[in-house]
Amino acid sequence: MKNTAIGLSLVVFIQAACFSVELTETKYNAYLHFLLGEISIRQNDFSRAQYELEQTIKLDRSAVNAYKDLIYIYLQSGKLEEARLLARTLKNLSDNANTKLFLGGYYVFAGDTASAVAQYEDVLKNDSDNSECLVILAGIYSETNPEKSISYWDRYISLNPDSAEAYYRKSAVLRKLKRPEEAKSALEKAVEVQPSDLLSRITLADIYQNEENYARAAKELDECTEFDKGNYSLYIRAGELYTLAKDYDNAKKVFERALAQPQGNKNPILYFWLALLYENDKDWENARLYIEKSIELKPDTASFIKLGYYYTQMNSVEKALKVLTKASSLDPKNAEVNFFLGLGYIDMGKTGKAEKCLLKAVNLNPEMADAHYYLATLYEQSGKFKKALPHLRKVIELNPKNAVALNFLGYAMADRGINIDEAEGLIEKALELDPGNAAYTDSLGWVYYKQGKYAEAKKEIEKASRDLKDPVITEHLGDVEKALGNTESALKLYKRVLFLDPGNKVVKKKLKQLEK
C-alpha cells in the first residue's frame, strides 16, 4: 500500500510541476488539492478526498471534474442537499456533453426524471447516435412513456444490433403494451444474437406457456439446460411442460439427463416425475422403481400414496396396504392416505376396516367427494341405504355435474320405490350430462316401470339393451314384458339373464314362477 501511495504522489508532483509555469499560485494549489483528492478516492479514503476536493473548488470555482467527484462523494455519504447545490452550480458552469451526461446520471439517482431527460435529450440534439443517452432514455421512457420508449430502443438496437439485453428490455416494454407477438420476436432475436441468454429464453418460455404452446415453452427451457447444466429447476420445468404437451418421450429424456448430472441422483423430484411418466405408460414396474428411489431420498406422504397405487395396479394389494399404513403412521391426519387405505380394504373384502378408513377420510376432509362416493357404495352394497343416502347427496352437493352420482342416487331410490319423482329428475340430469349412456337410459326406464308406465319403460330399456349387453338391463326388460303380460318374451329374457349370470337366484325364482 505504501509503495502505491508513493507512486501516485510522484505522479501528482510531476504533473503539478509541468503545469506550474502556466498556473497562478491559486490555480496551482487548487490543482494540487484535486490530485490529492483523486489519490484519496483511489485509496478509498473518502473523508480525505472530500476535504481535498472541497479545497479545490474553494480555490477554483471552475474545476468541473472536482465538482463531479465531490457530488459523487456527497451522494455516497448521504449528503443529498450538498450534492443538489453542487449539481446546480455545475449545470451553470459547464455546458458540454460530458457534463450533461454526468448531470443526467445525477438526476436519475436523485429521482428527478424530468431534469434527467432534459439533459440526455440535449446531448442527442448534437449527437443523435449517442448510445449511452439512447439506452438511458429508453429505460426512463419504459416507465413513463412506453410507446415512446420503443422508438428509442429501436434507435439503440440499430447502433448495437448484437445487444441481447436491448432486445430483452424492448420485449418487456412490448409486453407492458400488450403486444405479445412483437415481444416474442424481440426475445427470439435476443436468443439469436446470444444463445446463452437464459433470461430471454425463460421469458420466452413463459409467454409460450401462457399461450398454452407447451411444446415451444418446453423446448426453450430444455435448451437452457445446455448452458446451465446444474440448474435442476430448469430440467424439472422443461419436463413438466413436455408432459403438458403430451411429449412424454422428451419429458423422460430431460429428467434422465438431469439424473446424469453430478448431483442429479440426489434429487427426489426427478425420480418422482419419472415415476409419473412411467405411470402414464402403465409401466407399473418402472413406476414403482422410480418412486421407491424418490422415497429413499424424501419419504413423503405423496410418494407413499403413489407407491401404494402402483402395487394395487400390480395386483399386490397387501403390499399396497403395507405401504399406505406406513404413510398413515407418518401423517395420520392425511385424508388422502385414509381414502386409499379404504379402497385397499374394499379390494381385500375387509368392509369394516374400509368403512373406518373412509369415515376418517371424510371427517378429515368433508369436501373429498370420492371418499363420500365409495362410502355410499360400501353402505348401499351392504344393504345400509339409509347410511349411503347422505354421502351420495354430499357428492352431488360438491359436484352437481357428477353424472355417475346422479344416476347412482336416482336408480337406488327408484329401485327401492322411494322418492320416485326426485329419482326421475336426478336420472334426467345424468342423461343431459351423458346422453348416450346406456346404464342411465336403463335407469330412466326403471323409474317409468316403478311409476307403472310400462310402455315408456319398455322403450327406454330396449334402447339401453341394444347399446349394452348387461344381465341387469336384460332382467329389467323381462320384468317390463311380464308387467305388460308378454309372458313368452319375459321367459326368453330371464333365460338370457341366466345364460349371462348362471348364479342369479332372483331371476331363477322369477323364471320358476312364470313356468308354473
Give an overview of the whole structure.
This protein is mainly alpha-helical. Among the domains are: 267-332, Tetratricopeptide repeat domain (Serine Threonine Protein Phosphatase 5, Tetratricopeptide repeat, Alpha Horseshoe); 335-399, Tetratricopeptide repeat domain (Serine Threonine Protein Phosphatase 5, Tetratricopeptide repeat); 425-515, Serine Threonine Protein Phosphatase 5, Tetratricopeptide repeat. It has 30 helices and no strands. The protein is elongated, with a radius of gyration of 40 Å.
The CATH superfamily of the domain at 425-515 is Tetratricopeptide repeat domain
Beta content comes to under 5%
* Biggest sheet layout: none
| Residue-averaged pLDDT | 92
The CATH topology of the domain at 425-515 corresponds to Serine Threonine Protein Phosphatase 5, Tetratricopeptide repeat
> What's the helix count?
30
Q: Return the string of H and E elements.
A: HHHHHHHHHHHHHHHHHHHHHHHHHHHHHH
What's the CATH class label of the domain at 425-515?
Mainly Alpha
In CATH, the architecture of the domain at 425-515 is Alpha Horseshoe
Record the SSE blueprint.
Layout: H1 2-19, H2 25-42, H3 46-59, H4 64-76, H5 80-93, H6 97-110, H7 113-126, H8 131-144, H9 146-159, H10 164-176, H11 180-193, H12 198-210, H13 214-224, H14 232-244, H15 248-260, H16 268-280, H17 284-297, H18 301-313, H19 317-330, H20 335-348, H21 351-364, H22 369-381, H23 385-398, H24 403-415, H25 420-433, H26 438-450, H27 454-467, H28 471-483, H29 487-500, H30 505-515
